[in-house]
Specification:
heterodimer, A: mainly alpha, MetI-like fold, 2 domains, about 75% helix, about 0% strand, disordered N terminus, B: D-Maltodextrin-Binding Protein, domain 2, seven-stranded mixed sheet, two-stranded parallel ribbon, 13 helices, elongated, ABC transporter substrate-binding protein (chain B), thiamine binding (chain B), thiamine pyrophosphate binding (chain B), TAT_signal (chain B), SBP (chain B)
Chain lengths: ~290, ~350
């Protein structure tokens, strides 16, 4: 059979010009990313090395802002706290999101479609509206306190806001869809007969879950954890409004330096450190995923 | 009988009559749009009703208000000096030195903006830079149903009976800077010696529910009774009282610390004449009076207000303005970064 007969039967032949078609296809997105992602990141990196605390009419190259950040225990503690909040949020999302993602992947298409709409719907709301909604729900006169008082679990309303658990819960609510979607996409590719085979070999549900489902879902779990972690550590509206002054995260300090104090070089240096840490974590996870493709 | 000549003459005449309204309607700023950062909500509504709408009718000028934080507007403007996003930036006293330092604003003179002559003598804090249009003051507020003993000062916020009931601005909001300076000066300090203020804050700290940079968030805390006492802008307390909230407004015994809100014409605007026209209208009695009437913030011009309104504005008239503490905002801008850092460490 010659190649022309293959083409005649519907197989697309890739000629020399077609071989480079991907460049034309990806060029628009590449240009957008270059202009609106790469160039701003490079500008931010440049600003982080400016001398002094202003970036207009600034010049020179200095490490003063990085030294200020990395030699001050206050900023390092905020950095560690930020990573801790990111990790706690990612784990909470995993606990809540895995069963949902698994159930949706195994659901009939009709139910899966509705489930997806419900999962994605909160992402269409403005973050500020979501956060102010939580302020009302968790307030002393809010829904949660009313339910707790009504059920007799507490005698009078308690303070649920302005602490770490409140921030983690609200962050988890915001980023849960990313975990659900990550898990669902991977579980959807796991052949259900593997679970049936496990049951045939007398493995109970827990053993099947541990030895079959989790190992095969690991790529989805890890990409979900990474997504939620990266989004959480860069949050600033939620910790500012839900956590108050007791919950300090790096995003808030960066916002403060850039917008309030106009100290862009120091804000840029903090952003660069956070960017490096999150990028490193993402690269490690990606490398692990490549070496353990499931 | 109509000849060809009379037909042509009458047709041209009729056409001229029909076109006349359009010719008359041609206005100096047709197709010109000014962009300002608004303060949002009722403020933008009042600006639209008293400045933008009349200007549209009189001059054809269109005005767009882009609501958002004034600090962000200042940052955006400084970030794009060659193509600033606003023709006029609205911001408060602490931000004006930054705009001057970045050489981003034009001076305003009476020959271009005649109503500048109506400004109260000695009021502008930055010479001809910036046009002040309202005076906001930091006041004590507390829920009268939940607070048995009246609160008279910032120092009172440290009272044991207020444990877990106090909410305040942090220093990102200038309201926080104002109470910090009030506490410093009341305890023998000042801009150059802020230690007494932080000592006073340490005493209040056990009572603090939360600190926020958001005015709306602070109001929500009081309305939901998450907090029952604190410091807030006088106009916002008045708005809560109007909405039926049992919130008292007290001029603190440490003194009245205020800031002014300014219109700042941005250098390099494509429409300098339209900007001058806008500023002139914004300083009219109608516009300044409407803000004072609705928010009860202090007016910056010689506008007359009804006695019922004037009596509720703590900075109105010579006596009211005499109570306002004079502040060196340029110096405060230099110190603020250090204060915020110390505040974050102390109050966390």
């Amino acid at each position: 059979m010659n190649s022309s007969s293959v083409a005649a039967r519907g197989t697309v032949r890739v000629g020399p010009s077609g071989r480079y078609a991907w460049i034309a296809l990806t060029a628009p997105l590449a240009i957008v990313l270059l202009l609106f992602l790469v160039v701003p990141i490079l500008s931010l990196l440049r600003a982080s090395f400016f001398e002094g605390d202003r970036s207009f009419n600034a010049s020179g190259v200095s490490l003063e802002h990085y030294l200020r950040f990395l030699t001050d225990s206050y900023y390092l503690n905020v950095m560690l706290d930020t990573l801790g909040y990111g990790l706690a949020t990612a784990l909470l999302c995993l606990v809540l999101g895995f069963p949902t993602g698994y159930a949706l992947a195994r659901a009939k298409p009709h139910w899966r479609r509705w489930g997806l709409i419900i999962i994605i719907l909160p992402l269409t709301l403005s973050l500020v509206i979501v956060v102010f909604g939580w302020l009302v729900v968790l307030g002393r006169q809010g829904l949660v306190n009313q339910v707790l008082v009504f059920t007799g679990l507490i005698d009078k309303p308690i303070r649920l806001l302005f602490n770490s658990p409140a921030v983690i819960i609200v962050l988890a609510q915001q980023f849960l869809p990313f975990m659900v979607l990550s898990v669902m996409s991977v579980v959807g590719h796991i052949d259900p007969t593997l679970e049936q085979a496990s049951a045939n070999l007398r493995a109970n549900r827990w053993t099947t879950f541990r030895k079959v489902i989790v190992p095969l879902s690991l790529p989805g779990i890890l990409s979900g954890l990474t997504l939620v972690f990266v989004l959480s550590v860069s949050a600033f509206i939620t910790p500012r409004l839900i956590g108050g002054h007791r919950v300090q995260m790096l995003g808030s300090l960066i916002y403060e330096q850039i917008i309030v104090l106009l100290n862009w070089p120091f804000g840029a240096a903090m952003s660069a450190v956070l960017f490096t840490v999150t990028l490193t974590i993402t690269l490690i996870v990606n490398k692990w995923l490549k070496s353990h493709p499931g | 009988m109509q000849t060809r000549r009379t037909f042509l003459v009458s047709t041209v005449a009729a056409g001229a009559v029909l076109a006349a309204p359009a010719i008359v309607r041609a206005k100096p700023f047709d197709n010109v749009t000014l962009t300002l950062n608004g303060f949002g909500g009722d403020f933008d509504r009042i600006m639209k009703e008293t400045v933008a709408d009349p200007l549209k009718a009189e001059t054809g000028l269109d005005v767009t208000y882009a609501p958002g934080g004034s600090s962000a507007a200042v940052a955006k403007t400084i970030a794009t000096p060659d193509n600033p996003p606003f023709d006029i930036v609205l911001c408060d006293s602490p931000s004006v030195p930054e705009l001057i330092k970045a050489d981003m604003i034009d001076p305003v003179t009476p020959d271009k903006v005649p109503n500048v002559a109506n400004l109260l003598p000695g009021l502008p804090e930055f010479g001809q830079h910036g046009v002040p249009f309202m005076i906001s003051s930091s006041v004590i507020t507390y829920n009268t149903e939940e607070t048995q003993t009246p609160i008279a000062s910032y120092a009172d916020l440290a009272r044991p009976d207020l444990e877990g009931r106090v909410a305040l601005f942090n220093l990102e909001n200038t309201g926080g800077v104002l109470y910090l300076l009030a506490m410093a000066e009341a305890n023998g300090g000042g801009i150059d010696n802020i230690d007494p203020a932080f000592a006073a804050l340490e005493r209040i700290k056990p009572n603090i529910v939360t600190l926020t940079s958001s005015t709306v968030s602070l109001i929500q805390l009081f309305e939901q009774r998450e907090a029952t006492a604190g410091a807030l802008w006088n106009g916002r307390v008045f708005a809560m009282q109007n909405a039926g909230q049992p919130m008292a407004m007290v001029a603190p015994s440490e003194g009245i610390y205020s800031l002014m809100s300014y219109y700042n014409p941005i250098k390099g605007t494509k429409h300098p004449e339209a900007v001058a026209t806008y500023l002139n209208k914004a300083l009219s009695d109608e516009a300044i009076g409407a803000i004072a009437n609705f928010f009860r913030y202090g007016p910056t011009t010689t506008v007359d207000l009804p006695k019922a309104v004037a009596d509720t504005i703590i900075t109105f008239g010579p006596e009211g303005r005499a109570k306002i503490k004079t502040l060196d905002w340029t110096k405060i801008a230099e110190k603020r970064s250090g204060w915020i850092e110390r505040f974050n460490r102390t109050m966390a």
